[in-house]
Design brief:
The two termini are about 15 Å apart. It contains 11 helices and 18 strands. It is an alpha+beta fold. A hairpin with a 7-residue loop joins strand 1 and strand 2.
């Protein structure tokens, strides 16, 4: 019995298998969540990576752990048949039948958060820091792969890549992600769903810091001899905020700012940190030129601008739409409607999509409260979403 083109196992059979494994999936998620892994604590992230590594080896995965100095280690696991080698020693065309499953194990939550936000089952949810973003998604990937191994339909190589610095910009893992993605035909990202939808577009992100240097002076005795860095910064804030263009999906937001020393001193220093979001790749160079071209109004002040675009946008490409439509067809066979969505947040999928590789995102858990105290996963969706993931991997 076949369901959909090239699918060697009925979707309903995958759903039944996922339901049988639901308790084990929840248990693995709890283990990962209880291994707290804030991005800025390498030892903690590495401990969580070790847990995932042990589980991967138990499934027969071919593991390569890439040791890092500053951030958590990067875990690369390969499942399924190895691609055939050509006479030259390179992979044959079968290499491009690989699938990259992309996720991360670091979280935004500091050590000790579990005391105030315990990992617990209640009200049809699994609660706790990192449940939704994105340790349940990692557990779903392991479970989907295990199902295909047990049913004997894992007929291509699947590369599972788990990074340890996604929440802080992926500076270490990005080149690894891009290199592996270039060897694959598609990329599936295990980030949480957008509501109930898969994500077919994400905004790109940029971070800038603006430092203003003025001229200090006594605010009463020598007022006219000073040049206020804070006043100049206020002008800059108005300027950059005015670059927002909602119709283009371009936003510029000053998130933090500070300056000055005392109320009776004309401030000599001020600073601001700015978040920029772009929907179109072409807007990246344009907004970077705008920041580079900032000039002070008060010639006694000077500006120093650092930063730039750190993640390109994940645009809604034909290849991504094709993947989504395949997923929507399989979801219908499972009995639910799968919509698509765009989001202002970024992920490591932005990197792979920018390389031109079809990338489908939001394929992890359904829930709410990512990066918030009510972070939780809806248990009822775990089995159907895991079955859908397995079906896509088996196509």
């Amino acid at each position: 019995m076949m369901t959909g083109p090239d699918l060697p196992i009925p979707m309903r059979a995958l759903l039944a298998g996922a339901r049988r494994k639901e308790l084990a999936l929840l248990d693995l998620t709890r283990q990962l969540v209880r291994a707290e892994s804030p991005s800025d604590d390498k030892a903690a992230v590495d401990a969580c990576v070790s847990l995932a590594e042990t589980h991967a080896k138990g499934l027969g995965g071919r593991v390569k752990r890439r040791r890092q100095r500053e951030f958590g280690d990067v875990l690369e696991v390969r499942f399924g048949p190895r691609p055939a080698k050509s006479r030259s020693g390179s992979d044959s065309s079968g290499a491009f039948d690989r699938i990259l499953l992309l996720g991360h194990l670091d979280t935004v939550w500091p050590l000790g958060t579990l005391k105030a936000m315990p990992c617990r089952l209640a009200e049809g949810r699994l609660w706790g820091p990192g449940t939704l973003d994105m340790k349940a998604g990692v557990a779903m990937a392991f479970t989907a792969i295990e199902m295909l191994i047990e049913t004997g339909v894992l007929n291509r190589e699947i590369v599972l890549l788990l990074n340890g610095d996604e929440e802080v910009g992926s500076s270490v893992s990005r080149p690894i992600t891009e290199r592996l993605a270039a060897e694959c035909s598609v990329v599936y990202v295990l980030e949480p769903a957008q509501g109930l939808a898969y994500k077919t577009a994400r905004k790109g992100t940029g971070i800038w810091r603006i430092d203003v240097t003025g001229v200090p002076a006594h605010a009463g005795v020598d007022f006219e001899k000073g040049a206020s860095a804070i006043r100049e910064l206020a002008r800059v804030v108005e300027t950059v905020s005015g670059w927002t263009d909602l119709k283009r999906g371009l936003t510029v937001s000053v998130g933090t700012a500070g300056g000055g020393s005392r109320s009776n001193v004309i401030p000599a220093h001020a600073w601001a940190e700015v978040d920029g979001r772009i929907s179109r790749k072409a807007d990246g160079p344009r907004i970077e030129r705008k920041f580079t071209g900032l000039k002070p109004v008060d010639k006694l002040c000077s500006l120093a601008v650092t930063g730039g675009i750190n993640r390109p946008p994940m645009e809604r490409t034909r290849g991504t739409v094709r993947l989504y439509r395949q997923a929507r067809t399989l979801a219908a066979e499972l009995g639910f409607q799968l919509d698509e969505s765009a989001t202002g947040g970024a992920s490591d999928g932005n990197f792979t999509s920018a390389l031109g590789i079809p990338t489908l995102d939001g394929m992890g858990a359904v829930g709410e409260g990512a990066h918030a105290r009510h972070e939780s996963v809806l248990i009822e969706h775990l089995a159907p979403r895991t079955a859908l993931l397995a079906g896509l991997l088996a196509r």
